[in-house]
Target: AbrB/MazE/SpoVT family DNA-binding domain-containing protein
Amino acid sequence: MAVETDSHGRLYLSADLRKKYGEKFHVVEYADRIELIPIDDDPLQAVREATGGAFKDKSIEELRDETREQAKSDAEAGFERGRQSSKSSDR
Model:
C-alpha cells in the first residue's frame, strides 16, 4: 500500500487500517525507513496479555515501584562491578 503526505506533512490511513490498528502510533525512525507502531488504548493490559498474565493483579504503581527498585539494584551492582574491576586493574 502506498500513501502520500498532504501539503502539511500529514499521513492519512484508511478507515480499515485505523479500525484494525487504532488511532495512535509511535513513530520509529531508522536510517532507511520509518515504522508506525500502534499504541494500545490500554498499554498495561496489552503488556499483561503479551506476558501471559505475569503482571496479573498488579497496579501500575506496584509495577513502577518494582521496576525502580530493580533498576536501582542493577545500577548498584554495575557500579560495584566497575569498582572491583578498577581495583584489580590498579594492581
Notes: Residues 27 and 36 are 5 Å apart (CA to CA). Helices lie at 15-21, 43-50, 60-90. The chain has three helices and two strands. The beta strands are 25-29, 34-38.
